[in-house]
Specification:
single chain; 184 residues; alpha+beta; M1 Pyruvate Kinase, Domain 3; 3-stranded antiparallel β-sheet; 4 helices; globular; MOSC domain-containing protein YiiM; Pyrv_Knase-like_insert_dom_sf; molybdenum ion binding
């Protein structure tokens, strides 16, 4: 019997083209130093079109995009139906406070694959193009006036392997002082 209280991978998604949403898959393969095999954002240097235009030699700190399914629950409560892959993420988790993790946190996904969190996804106008009004739900300000970005985190692949829905997520915090996540 599977313990459903453990942090888990809810869904995995990929797209070979620069579409906003990615298609759910039965399994994806993470490749060390590159990202998700067959995904348009896989590579050692930036693959996001706006970043390629600025500097195509920049290291790719956005090889894997992860979103917590709890965001979808919040969005549903305010009238937005969003499914895994819709916001362009590769891995949808449940039971992991992705946004609260420090930079450098390692996530073991399943038995083999391991990614390192590099920073926050910076929500952009494409989210409103996908669903008008959605951007204001995934970016806002807190009580102190600080910008809060809720559209997931970005990571690089340290150890490759297959990742599938139902896989456990094991969190390993970095040593030393913890650095708060910033957009990458």
């Amino acid at each position: 019997m599977t313990d459903t209280t453990l942090p888990r991978v809810l869904a995995v998604s990929t797209s070979p083209t620069h579409d906003f949403s990615k298609q759910p898959q039965d399994v994806v393969t993470l490749v060390a130093g590159l990202g998700v095999a067959g995904d348009t954002h896989s590579g050692t240097t930036v693959q996001h079109r706006s970043r390629v235009r600025r500097d195509p030699t920049t290291p790719n700190l956005r090889q894997v995009h992860l979103i917590h399914a709890e965001l979808f629950d919040e969005l549903r409560d305010v009238g937005f139906e969003v499914r895994p892959g819709d916001l362009g993420e590769n891995v949808t988790t449940r039971g992991v406070d992705l946004l609260g993790l420090p930079r450098g946190t390692r996530l073991q996904l399943g038995t083999d694959a391991e990614v390192e969190i590099t920073g926050l996804r910076n929500p952009c106008q494409q989210i409103n193009d996908f669903r008008p009004g959605l951007l204001r739900e995934v970016v806002g300000t807190d009580d102190a006036g600080e910008v809060v970005r809720k559209a997931g985190v970005m990571a690089v692949v340290h150890v490759g392997g297959d990742v599938a829905p139902g896989d456990t997520v094991t969190v390993t915090l970095p040593d030393g002082p913890h650095e708060r996540l910033a957009p990458v």
